[in-house]
Amino acid sequence: MYNDLDIQCEYFDKCKKVVKLSDLADHEATCQLPKCFNYEICENHAKNEFGSKPHACSPDCLLLAQIREANGDYGKILTMTKAHLDKFCKPAIGNFGGGGFVSVGSGSGNSNISNIKWDRGHCGTGIQFSDNDQSCFLKEGPYMFRTVIADTPLNGGVHYWEIHADKRTDNELKIGIALQRDFTYNSAFCDHEFGYAFYGLGQLRHGSNASGTQYGKRFKKEGVLGCFLDQNRGILSFALNGEYFGPAFKNEALKKGPAYPAVSLLHCAGCKIVGGMPVPNYFLK
């Protein structure tokens, strides 16, 4: 009759676990085993086959540890990430060197993400494309947001891409991800509950066309906006010209795919989407 009681582990000061009485003995038997360095997120114990420095539970956690130890050495990070993808995710990543995102995750979770570009078939009216559809631009009389999404769905793992400003832009953009592909593109994707965006006024937008919290700095016709989606933890973050703004959004919905990089343009605005760079170290801390 007491098996459903919640009991603190004997090592609660370190473990922080509360378990059922019926599970307590099994839990405490393993509680003092070495934990993965990433235990607060993955909640797994280390496995011998992944070495002891650092302790890791999986190839993904081992790679994250190595990336952190690289301390921003992008050449080393790129080499390690490519080796990891070639070994564990090769069927899913296609041509890693073809200019797509750097993406880390389970092999079954990653899609072919080479040669990211805007999707002409999923965009608002009046948007023009160039640079092999990596660049988009809108110039029209009406003041109405028009959205375009990328042609590449993101499914699991972590993803980094950049939005390069267009100097002809007169009106701030809304930049982020859409968790749906079928909606009215003659609107801002972040007006809807499935849209998450950084607005170039230095604000966030999610499920609203008029209000959002202050975040970051203004971005319009100069600079590079780094975009980082961590679908393992459900976090979307941004950085402007290498200045990291911290997590913009964190929730369960961001762990689920597919997610599509998206931008909404107003009146006279444009940008270029670029992939293929290593993930900056500040996004991984």
Explain how this protein is built:
The protein is of the alpha+beta class. The protein is globular, with a radius of gyration of 21 Å. A hairpin with a 3-residue loop joins β10 (195-199) and β11 (203-205). It starts with 5 loop residues before the first strand and ends in an 11-residue tail after the last strand. It has helices at residues 12-15, 24-31, 39-42, 59-70, 74-88, 90-93; strands spanning 6-8, 18-20, 102-104, 118-123, 128-130, 135-139, 145-150, 158-165, 174-178, 195-199, 203-205, 224-230, 235-240, 243-250, 260-266, 268-274.
Task: Please outline the helices and strands.
Layout: E1 6-8, H1 12-15, E2 18-20, H2 24-31, H3 39-42, H4 59-70, H5 74-88, H6 90-93, E3 102-104, E4 118-123, E5 128-130, E6 135-139, E7 145-150, E8 158-165, E9 174-178, E10 195-199, E11 203-205, E12 224-230, E13 235-240, E14 243-250, E15 260-266, E16 268-274
Antiparallel strand pairs: 1-2, 3-8, 4-7, 5-6, 6-16, 7-15, 8-12, 8-16, 9-10, 9-15, 10-11, 12-13, 13-14
